[in-house]
Each structure stands twice: as structure tokens, then as C-alpha cells.
Amino acid sequence: MDSRWRDGAHSRTGGAAGGLKSERAPRQDEPSGESADATEPLRELPQWMRLYFYGMHGVTLDVLLSSLHGVVNKRDPKLLGFSSPYLCVMHSLTHFALEKIYSQKRCFRSRPVVFHLVFYPSIYIGLQILIGNISTLTEQVRLVSGTQLAVNYILALYFSQVFHRGMSKLQYQTELPSTPEPEDRGDSRARPRGLPGLVHFLFFGMHGFLDEVLFTSLFNLVEKSDRTLSGHTSLWSFLMYGSCSFVVEKLYLHLHLSRGWGTWQRLPVYVCIIYTWEFTWGLVLRQFGACSWDYSHYPHNFMGLITLLYLPGWVCLSLYQDVLSNVLLKIKSTKTVKDNREVNGELESEKL
């Protein structure tokens, strides 16, 4: 960009009218190189990334549905929900299979209603029934109620109409952008853009569910010898983790990318924010009987809401937070990538 401005300055100061005309032609071709540099590293989301997100998304649905079930039956203000690492793996695999099934919708171009309302929901409901029977680990086949069928059918419509469409718009940039993205201009609709802040918040909230389910399942395995690896969390944790991680990510962008702070300089700031966040949320939720944790029986606790015993875990999560932020910054979204990817997918299959 600097070289172009210098070239333009030389042409204006030292040339006649003919010289100006001759300089305009190559300058029209140069922006194509810039756009090529901006779009060349973009590619489809790697499979490991999609499997990671699918498992996290599946755990979120488990927690949400089980929490709502508990609210209806027990009126529990703690909004506890349940899942397990087993279900996380199963969700990763089934979501990946559903992605492949969704890619076959081109076979139903003349009958899209059949695909979205009959074929895809049937496959989805069948997989969910299979997961439910595998997770129970019993010889008897568990019956599915009409309410469960209705809920699964609604979720199938959500996946076919919202989830897969959203995922098809995402692309991955191999290198982390070193400068903030430019402001929207006339061609902003076609240019891939970073994920909005709301998506970052939702991602961190879902990842908080995954973190707590994994931690509590391992805790139950060690302390209670629970081989089902059942873990739990609370819907309030979604807001806690989502908001806290969102703030920490903004600090990462400012302290690291803008001010050049190293990891060990940022880490104490992260940990202080996490403890402040946990204490504040716990203090507020306790007033309504909705706080789902109590560290009173742990050493070095303060009011039973925070404890230094969990300091190593918060340090590890703080370090992992930067990794997640880097990954999210490399993901781009565009409104036109859906159709292009379908065409490219067909062309690539033909080449292979």
C-alpha cells in the first residue's frame, strides 16, 4: 500500500498529462493482488475444528434440554443441566454424519420440502434415538415419548434451516491477521469478514458448558467412581463464561496485539478477572438461591464462592483462552460462500 502511494506521488510531481494516463493503467491492476492476498489463505474449516465445535454444540443442547426439564419438574433456580464426555464424542460423530447428509440436498433440488421436512428429520431423529439407547448402556430399548419426538423434530428443522447454513458460510484463514479489519466499503458483502462479537460470546458460553461437564465428570470418576462420566453445569454458567471470556479476549487483543505484552504479563490480569467474575456472579446468584457451587469445604476459600485450590485450573484455562481467541480470529464469514462452496465441492469431486 505504501509503495502505491509513493508511485502515485512520483507520477503527480514529475509527469505531464500523458504520464498520468500511463500510470493509471497499472494502478487499476494492483488492487487485484491485494484482494488475492486477502482471500488466498481462506479455506474450509478443518475437520478437527468442525468435530470440536460439533461436540461442544451437542453438549450445549444436552445441558439446555436437561436444564429445562428440571425447571419444569423441580422449579430449581440453579438451572442444572447434564451431559458427559461420551455424549460429546457421539455428538461430534453424528453431527459430522449429518453434515454429509445435508450436503446431499442437491439430490432433492426439485423437492426441497421433502428433504427439509421429511428426509433430514427422519435421519436426525433416528440418530438421536440411537444415541439415547447407547448412552443408557442397557439391554432394553428405551422408548421415546411423543414430546421427545416433537422436540427432536424441531431440532432437526433448526439444524437443516439454521445450523448447517451458518456453518457453510465459515472459512478458515491460515494466518492470524496482524491488523484490524478495514471498515465496510462498497464490496463488503462479498469480502469475508470476522465473526461478530455475539458469535464470540456464544462460542465462549458453549465452551464453558464443555469445560464444566468435563471437569465434573472427571471429578465424579475420581471421587465417586462413576464410570458413566456424567457431568453437570448450570445455564447461568453460559452467561458467566461467555461474558468473562469475551472480556478476556478483548484484553488479549489490546495487551498482546496492541501493546505487545507477553503471556506471563497477561496471565495475572486474566486470573484476577476470572476470580472477580466468579465471586461477583456467585454473590448475586446466592441471593436468589441459584448459585450452583459452594467451596466452603475447600481450603483457602472466601465466602465459599472462590478458592485458591482451583488456581492451577484457572491458569490453564487462561492460557487456553488465548489459543481459542487465535482460532476465532482466523475464522471468517461471508454471505456468498455457501453457493460457492457447493459449486467448488462439485468441481473438486470431478477433479478427483
UniProtKB/TrEMBL annotation:
Signal peptide span: none
Q: Where are the transmembrane segments?
A: 114-135, 141-159, 198-222, 234-255, 267-289, 301-320
Amino acid composition bias (Basic and acidic residues), ranges on this chain: 1-10, 21-30
Localization (cell): Membrane
Protein topology in the membrane: Multi-pass membrane protein
The answer, when asked if Membrane is one of the entry's keywords, is yes
Record bears the keyword Transmembrane: yes
> For the region Disordered, what residue ranges are annotated?
1-39
Record key words, sorted: Membrane, Transmembrane, Transmembrane helix
Taken from the UniProt entry, a GO cellular component term is: membrane
Primary residence: membrane
Coiled-coil parts of chain: none
Regarding protein family, the annotation reads: Belongs to the TMEM229 family.
Instruction: Report what the protein is called.
Output: Transmembrane protein 229A
What is the organism of origin for this protein?
Answer: Solea senegalensis (Senegalese sole)
